[in-house]
Amino acid sequence: MTTTDRHLAATERVQAAEEAVVRLRTGLADAGIKLPSLRLDPASCAGAEPTPLVDLGRCNLEVVAKLSALVEARHPS
């Protein structure tokens, strides 16, 4: 794989992660949930071969309760 190919692959990984964050943010908003710190972890996107990680951030108990209810409704025990 050439340097150009590796750069293109890295760019595509970061773009895919950015799109995933947008989809997650939109889906959560549709459910009435906002994660204020939702973002890509910048350190994971650095370097020649980034492995993007999504930082879900911190949230208050109200948001945790909404997330729990959403997950439980989709996957009842």
Keywords:
77 residues, mainly alpha, elongated
Descriptive overview:
The structure is a single chain. The chain is elongated. The longest helix is centred in the first third of the chain and has 28 residues, at 3-30. It is mostly helical and 77 residues long. The protein has one domain (3-74). The chain contains two helices and two strands, in the order H-E-E-H. The protein has helices spanning 3-30, 61-74; strands spanning 39-40, 54-55. It has a two-stranded antiparallel sheet. The model has no long low-confidence stretch (mean pLDDT 91).
Q: Unreliable segments (pLDDT under 50, ≥5 consecutive)?
A: none
> How many domains, in number, for the residues?
1
Choose one word for the global shape: elongated
> Could you estimate the helical fraction of the residues in percent?
40-55%
SSE inventory with pairings:
Blueprint: H1 3-30, E1 39-40, E2 54-55, H2 61-74
What does this entry show, briefly?
The protein is mainly alpha-helical and 77 residues long. The chain has one domain. It is built from 2 helices and 2 strands, in the order αββα.
